[in-house]
Task: structure prediction
Amino acid sequence: DEAPVDAPEEFVPFCGALAVGAVASASARLYHQGLARLKMLARDPRWRMREAVAMGLQQLLDSRPQQTIEQLSSWVRGGDFLEMRAAAAAVADPAALTQTETALSALELHRTIVQRMLESSERKSDAFRILRKALGYTLSVVVQAVPDPGFGFMTGLIETRDPDLTWIVKQNLQKNRLVKNFPDQIAAARRLLEPGRVSPPR
Result:
């Protein structure tokens, strides 16, 4: 309450959130306590605090990748939109995706998020909008790490013809990390996005 958005005082809780991640990453005894605090902070209305949470989670991914991925997967299965946003932003870190197993888990995490978005009746909410905006860049980071299943996943999103998922795909197809490295896949995806394009039968 004493540090609203854009107030200089906001720097203090921002650093506090980062410190939670740092301490929990260095102490097995405090890991679950720190993770619980970051989950609570993920719902903070201030965007800088939400960024600090993602950065704190990335420290946990660095120290305990598999355990943290499993915890974040539980967030996306049962959490709210802002908790899902924190999980997606946390795994959108190239340094965390150098191991194929972790990258595939991050892709599966996005798959679960998308399914929950499709099932949601609250698409007009601010939290949904914040989640959608984050997915507009996080997916490309994961796809870069595991391009074959990643582009296959994006093709599936295009074929839903869902306007929110289409928007997410279009945003990610503009990212240089994909444009420079996967021109053929980008071109194929853009052809599928053309108006009137009919998906082939399976």
User: Anything to note?
Assistant: The two ends are 54 Å apart (CA to CA). Residues 79 and 173 are 28 Å apart (CA to CA). The mean pLDDT is 95.
